[in-house]
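User: Here's a structure from my thesis project, written as structure tokens. My advisor, Dr. K., wants to see whether a designed sequence matches the one we expressed. Can you design one independently, without my sequence as a hint?
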């Protein structure tokens, strides 16, 4: 399984970006997919996820600004980000796990331990 994250870049405060996570060796509609981010000097934090059942989860601090979608034909998951803030600056990682027995559990999907494979990350920088 390989995950290729892309779409990061430099954007001004209030701008938008769409990150892509292309999976190979895995059908994204059959497995759990997630996005995490890690800012310099900080721990990795949960951003968003979509369960194998299609349920989406967004971290509270990003609700209303971030959304997640899935293109099953392309085996790609997208993270659409609006109204970006300097504090959104981070390396964004996509990840995939199995098929959760609790596909409606936010706690499960927001834990990095629920994911087995990780992409290399794509850098998002938001200037003020």
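Assistant: Designed independently from the structure alone:
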């Amino acid at each position: 399984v390989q995950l290729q994250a892309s779409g990061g870049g430099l954007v001004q405060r209030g701008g938008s970006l769409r990150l892509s996570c292309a999976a190979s060796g895995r059908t994204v509609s059959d497995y759990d997919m997630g996005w995490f981010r890690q800012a310099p000097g900080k721990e990795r934090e949960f951003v968003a996820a979509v369960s194998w059942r299609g349920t989406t989860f967004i971290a509270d601090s990003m609700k209303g600004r971030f959304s997640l979608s899935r293109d099953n034909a392309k085996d790609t998951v997208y993270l659409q980000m609006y109204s970006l803030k300097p504090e959104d600056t981070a390396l964004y990682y996509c990840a995939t796990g199995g098929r959760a027995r609790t596909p409606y559990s936010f706690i499960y999907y927001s834990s990095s331990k629920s994911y087995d494979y990780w992409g290399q990350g794509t850098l998002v920088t938001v200037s003020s």
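When you compare it with your expressed construct, this may help: The helical segments are 106-109.
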